[in-house]
Automatic annotation (TrEMBL):
The lineage of its organism: Archaea, Methanobacteriati, Methanobacteriota, Stenosarchaea group, Halobacteria. SUPFAM superfamilies: YVTN repeat-like/Quinoprotein amine dehydrogenase. The keyword Glycoprotein applies. Residues 34-47 have a biased composition (Low complexity). Keywords: Glycoprotein, Repeat, Signal. The keyword Lipid metabolism does not apply. This is FG-GAP repeat protein. Residues 50-60 have a biased composition (Polar residues). It holds the Pfam family FG-GAP_2. Residues 18-74 are annotated as: Disordered. InterPro entries: FG-GAP (IPR013517), Int_alpha_beta-p (IPR013519), Integrin_alpha_N (IPR028994), Quino_amine_DH_bsu (IPR011044), TAT_signal (IPR006311).
Length: 442
């Protein structure tokens, strides 16, 4: 169980896990729809142009999943398709994933997807990804059992003629336990390449040192195969390379976090690695660590990459000893002429008690709009925008229910940056404590 899931369960207390119901239900006492997720607020455009738009500033919808049990944790993992018309949202308590589509200005749940064969302790929905047009979804299940071994897996689902079906189960044939395959996942824009983090593998892709690895899977003629294994050039014991991953839309660039890099015997705590694909081979191009003056920053528990592959973000949310300067930051790196350089170090305005700023990240296609989640004290989400080579905080979203909702637990941004989503998996309504919600802003 990773730190994000553990913190969510603490927020939820001892509420009972349960299944999300289908598409029935009506307004509750608070006036919100609790069956099929529907839009509330101002009308929402049916699509999201790839061209850059103004950063979002207004809530246009609040979505809930149906269900009669007390806790669904809807919104524990969220992702938007590139065109902004499809939302994928996990419900961690019952380990299901909801596909919600925007049609004629209304959000409607079109599918609830689950694996064809359920594996004991699979944690299905720990991570999610969706391609550019919302027709392919990738779901991580890092505790999935394969041949009686808790190896982990990532499941591919595809939509054809309006129906969703499982296309593949991506895992490794190694019989080692606790590899955590699928704890982080990412998809290319056309849905044909998947990047799957495996932080407890060693440098050969097996278990042992937990230096970490990531698997690249590719689809050809409807068949998925493991094409490459990525490992850091200098990763070592407990580095957990692949704990977080992100892939560009054309599957030519990847960023991978190793939050355990360095450990207690190093002045650095965490690293992020840039990989690029050329001529069919993946090679490491750069390695990022915290700036020397901020060496106490806990680096890379979250990473993100713009779809065009030009901008990478690395979260540094957890200082060992909190101060206004150390930790609680997001690093921005940009690529020019094949060289990666540090562009900025973003900090939230206002209350310095906003720890865990940068534990969740999402970027627009061109890397000019960022949504940054705060996943501890002061749960919230910040919009930053880049203009004339300078980054500035645009707004802060906080949701309706305060810090007990776990608002900001995961975030997503459309290609244009004009539509964003924020998960609040611990938010309840009068009938269902901790049922969860997803907010939409434009």
């Amino acid at each position: 169980m990773d730190n994000r899931r553990r913190r969510l369960l603490v927020a939820l207390g001892t509420a009972t896990a349960g299944a999300v119901a289908g598409c029935s239900g009506g307004p509750n006492d608070a006036g919100e729809q609790t069956g099929t997720p529907t839009m509330t607020g101002t009308p929402t455009p049916a699509g999201d142009s790839m061209a850059s738009q103004e950063p979002p500033s207004e809530q246009t919808a609040k979505l809930r999943a149906g269900g009669e049990e007390t806790t669904d944790s809807f919104g524990s993992a969220v992702e938007l398709s590139g065109d902004g018309s499809t939302l994928v949202a996990a419900s961690s308590s019952d380990e299901s994933v909801h596909v919600i589509s925007l049609t004629d200005g209304e959000w409607t749940e079109t599918a609830q997807i689950e694996p064809d064969e359920s594996g004991l302790g699979e944690v299905f929905g720990e991570s999610v990804a969706v391609d550019g047009d919302g027709s392919t979804v990738l779901v991580g299940a890092p505790e999935d059992r394969s041949n009686d071994h808790e190896v982990g897996a990532a499941y591919v689902f595809s939509r054809s003629d309006g129906e969703w079906s499982q296309q593949a189960e991506l895992t490794t044939d190694r019989p080692d336990e606790f590899l955590e395959v699928g704890i982080s996942v990412s998809l290319s824009g056309d849905g044909s390449t998947a990047l799957v983090g495996t932080p407890r593998a060693d440098s050969t892709g097996t278990t042992g040192s937990t230096s970490g690895a990531a698997y690249v899977f590719s689809r050809s003629d409807g068949e998925w195969t493991q094409a490459w294994t990525l490992v850091g050039e200098d990763t070592g014991t407990l580095d957990m390379f692949g704990k977080t991953v992100a892939l560009s839309a054309d599957a030519s660039t990847a960023v991978l976090g190793a939050p355990g890099y360095g450990g207690i015997d190093s002045e650095k705590d965490g690293a992020a690695y840039m990989f690029e694909r050329s001529g069919g081979d993946w090679t490491q191009q750069a390695k990022f660590t915290a700036d020397d003056e901020y060496s106490e920053d806990t680096f890379a528990p979250a990473v993100e990459l713009s779809a065009d592959g030009s901008t990478a973000m690395v979260g540094a949310p957890e200082p060992e000893d909190y101060s206004e300067e150390i930790g609680n930051a997001v690093y921005v790196f940009s690529q020019s002429d094949g060289e990666w350089t540090r562009e900025d170090r973003l900090k939230p305005k206002g209350d310095p008690g906003e720890i865990y700023f940068g534990n969740t990240l999402s970027l627009s296609r061109d890397g000019s709009v960022a949504l940054i989640g705060v996943t501890n004290i002061g749960y919230s989400a910040y919009v930053f925008a880049k203009s004339d080579d300078s980054w500035a905080q645009e707004t802060r979203f906080m949701g309706d229910k305060g810090h007990l909702s776990a608002f900001g637990y995961d975030v997503g941004v459309s290609d244009s940056g004009g539509r964003v989503v924020v998960g609040a998996p611990a938010e309840g309504d009068p009938d269902r404590e901790g049922s969860g919600a997803v907010y939409v802003y434009e």
